[in-house]
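Notes on consecutive records. When two proteins share a document, each keeps its own sequence and its own token line. Never mix them. Below: protein one.
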Amino acid sequence: MVVVAVAAVLTNKGSDSRATPTTTLDPSVATAAGVASVGSKAPLFDLDGLHGGRVSLAQLRGQPVVVNFWASYCFPCRNEFATFKNATTKYRAQGLHIVGITFDDLTSDARAFAKQQHANWILADGGEGDPVGKAYGVRALPQTIFIGRQGTIIARYFGAPSAARFDSEVRRLLASA
């Protein structure tokens, strides 16, 4: 059994967002077991873009994609923004696409935070009831899924990875056939 130390994030609307105790969670608590697991095909999605337009995983087929589930109230998610911004700048020419999908967040709050942070990657609204998050088995935030060129999930990460760890996963994703 693998155990990960994380800051627990409550994803229920109306919960006290100040309550973020440090706790130890089994990754299966954060992810529905067997749902969108490593080696499986990534569930397709077609969502409203946070700043207009549509965001579709099918349109990115054949390219390496990082999908990140986040919320504006999630402190570890907020910390990831600098990592994603730097990675987008560094790896865009190599075909990397990062797609941030809101999970259990108010669209207006997510949009305002992304604008404030000058997010330079693709952002989508997860929608009412978070159907895409559920299709990926997301139960807690943040979660990042690395999808290879053939649409297969090659890695899945719960929590905010360090910049070095994220960079290592991106390089592995870019090197995959």
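Protein two starts on the next line and is unrelated to protein one.
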Amino acid sequence: MSGFDVRAALERELGPDRLSEAVGAPAAFAVQPGDGGALASTLRILGEARARAQVRGRGTHDELGNGPVEVDALLSTRGLCGIEELDTQDGVVRVRAGTSLAELAEAVTPHGWELPLGAPGSASVGGTLASAAIGPRRLGQGPPRDCVLGLDVVLTTGEQTRCGGRVVKNVTGFDLAKLYTGSFGALGVIEAAWLRLSPLPETVAVRVASLAAGSDPMDTAIDAARRPTARCAALLDRSIAERIGISATSDAALLVEFAGSEPAVREDERWLCGRCAAAPVAGDVVDALAGAQRRALPDGGARARVGLLPSACGRAAQALRASGAHLIVHAGVGLVYAEWSEAGESVAAVEQVAAQAHGEARFELLPADLKRGRDVFGVGTDTRARVELMRSLKQRFDPAGVLNPGRCLGRL
């Protein structure tokens, strides 16, 4: 930075009350812009100084991605909060990036809408989109990018850009909103988003089945996921089922949530009960599963997320379980969450499964000694091509490497 005092420049531009000591990040100081203009000024100053910054919303996704490297500043988006516009007729909302999912859900629910971004919680909208965090209702709600109509993103030049908007039809050319969603803040900082809401379903029913030995749990889970009203169909190991309050009488429990019109939900319930003994449970158990997919693990533990074809889930689950993993399998969308209380064979097992199934995997939690020097996204058959694509994007959007250095695919 050649003697240029970035902190002093930011204090002059934003005021000293917007800077503080960094907590929980390897940074010299923290800066919290209060609006889009201040965010643009912050990024312009950081970019001109070629200073490096870790971007953070509410910190709930800090463990995802590659380990942080030492940076000059922690850039917090918590000051960018609030709902700017809510159209209760069309079911669209414009919300600032630092707003929590819980706050947004509380605002839209009384109007007959729900937020299709997983279980409401303390995570910020911007952090959820930047990390493309997936909840247990991925089957029915789709990935986070599906509800994004448009984004306001600030680049390291200080340029405030907008892609998309409140309606799908005004998206022309490249759909950059899909590019930013899941980029871990490595290309630009999300300032605000236009999101598409989902109507609250008329009826929701949650059932759990303890699958008997001799049956094929994976086939039952896939068939359940194909029912018209299914929005969660998760196969759980006994230990995970009991952790979220389900009393399992066998090694595998199938948790299914149906949502939709009353007749359609009841028809799917009848189908499930005809296939296996499925008892009703409280609806909040699905939200509890969301917590189980993100829970902290003991020191030395590991968690991986493997994406593959639904038809490959059975063999992958068998191999991962043999390595000592406890599993949550969303077979309908080809996602397997595996966790180990001791990392042990986790890396080798995940790499082997991803290679054999021609899938992709990422480590969401790893002990520091295993994470150091490792690309947690770099597990899969086309890793080299994906890294080269990310490198070209990083060079185009953030050539000085200001934003979240080392955190995204390729440790770029």
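For the record: Residues 51 and 402 are 6 Å apart (CA to CA).
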